[in-house]
From TrEMBL:
<dbReference type="GO" id="GO:0003723">
    <property type="term" value="F:RNA binding"/>
</dbReference>
<dbReference type="InterPro" id="IPR035979">
    <property type="entry name" value="RBD_domain_sf"/>
</dbReference>
<dbReference type="InterPro" id="IPR000504">
    <property type="entry name" value="RRM_dom"/>
</dbReference>
<dbReference type="InterPro" id="IPR012677">
    <property type="entry name" value="Nucleotide-bd_a/b_plait_sf"/>
</dbReference>
<keyword id="KW-0694">RNA-binding</keyword>
<feature type="domain" description="RRM">
    <location>
        <begin position="54"/>
        <end position="132"/>
    </location>
</feature>
<feature type="domain" description="RRM">
    <location>
        <begin position="134"/>
        <end position="216"/>
    </location>
</feature>
<protein>
    <submittedName>
        <fullName>RRM 1 domain containing protein</fullName>
    </submittedName>
</protein>
<feature type="domain" description="RRM">
    <location>
        <begin position="229"/>
        <end position="286"/>
    </location>
</feature>
<dbReference type="Pfam" id="PF00076">
    <property type="entry name" value="RRM_1"/>
</dbReference>
């Protein structure tokens, strides 16, 4: 059984027109651990985890219902990566479960199609996008430290850091604002890091840091995103005016498709005529 090297490679191998019969897929297994019944690919398959925003929450389930009934229903909207059912002490489900798809658009389609769906012809279930928070807020950071220095120190204590997001002081660009957001590979690693870095557990550069969950980033339906024609720009020197910023963007992107530039303090919104031009500008300005 060969492993698949990347998410892109595996996505190409999926037949997205016809749902796979996951229940008969020999690459999948069922395990029960920490009060969960998990139906997912075996680690030996090399099937990569899907991106953020692909998990849905399913509530109001009958307590004797398991993956053998959920998968045939929810796989109608696309290939399923895994199913997690929460169990009570008697081995029954707690009335809710989580399903992860391989594609964000399939998760959103499942919410539309199956929220208030009548299962077993008697029970109406609730379905919504799951809040998959992978981001921590860390405060009381010395203002003279860079994101690279902060990441280097934190990696000595916790695993799975993807990025350290730092914002500079508008009037003093060489200083940060005294806090950062730390993005992790998944919610589990973020939760473990939050426990390890709890108040009083870690002092860095002579300061006790403050750690808590960051406000979850909203997960937007890809169909809605297709109609967005605005870009958000941040970390702009506060001394630059809207007019000056507009001229800079004209030089970089041309004048044909920029409708409006609205700058506030150290950030701005740039309005384009069509979505395609906004996407091209995003790639050039990254």
């Amino acid at each position: 059984m060969h492993s698949i090297g990347s998410w892109e490679d595996f996505q190409k191998s999926l037949n997205l027109e016809q749902p796979r019969d996951v229940l008969r897929d020999t690459r999948y297994q069922v395990i029960q651990s920490n009060g969960q019944r998990i139906y997912s690919p075996s680690s030996s398959t090399g099937i990569p985890a899907p991106p953020k925003g692909t998990e849905i929450f399913i509530g109001n389930l009958p307590h004797d219902l398991f993956e053998d009934e959920l998968i045939p229903i929810f796989s109608r909207r696309g290939p399923i990566y895994n199913v997690r059912i929460m169990l009570d002490f008697f081995g029954r489900n707690r009335g809710y479960a989580f399903i992860s798809y391989f594609r964000v658009e399939d998760a959103h389609a499942a919410v539309v199609d199956f929220n208030n769906y009548k299962i077993r012809n008697r029970t109406r279930i609730a379905v919504c996008i799951s809040v998959d928070n992978r981001r921590l807020f860390i405060g009381n950071i010395p203002k003279d430290r860079t994101s690279e220095e902060i990441k280097f120190v934190l990696q000595k204590y916790v695993e799975g850091i993807v990025a350290v997001i730092l914002y500079n002081e508008p009037l003093y660009p060489r200083l940060n604002r005294g806090f950062v957001f730390v993005e992790f590979q998944n919610h589990r690693l973020a939760a473990i890091a939050r426990r390890h870095l709890a108040p009083g557990n870690l002092v860095i550069w002579g300061q006790a840091i403050f750690v808590d969950w960051a406000e979850p980033l909203p997960i937007v339906n890809p169909q809605i995103l297709k109609n967005v024609t605005k870009l958000y720009l941040s970390n702009i020197p506060i001394v630059i005016t809207s007019s000056q910023l507009k001229n800079i963007l004209y030089d970089l992107l041309g004048t044909d498709h920029i409708l409006k530039v609205h700058k506030i303090d150290d950030y701005a919104f740039v309005h384009f005529t069509i979505r395609k031009q906004a996407e091209e500008a995003f790639q050039r300005l990254r």
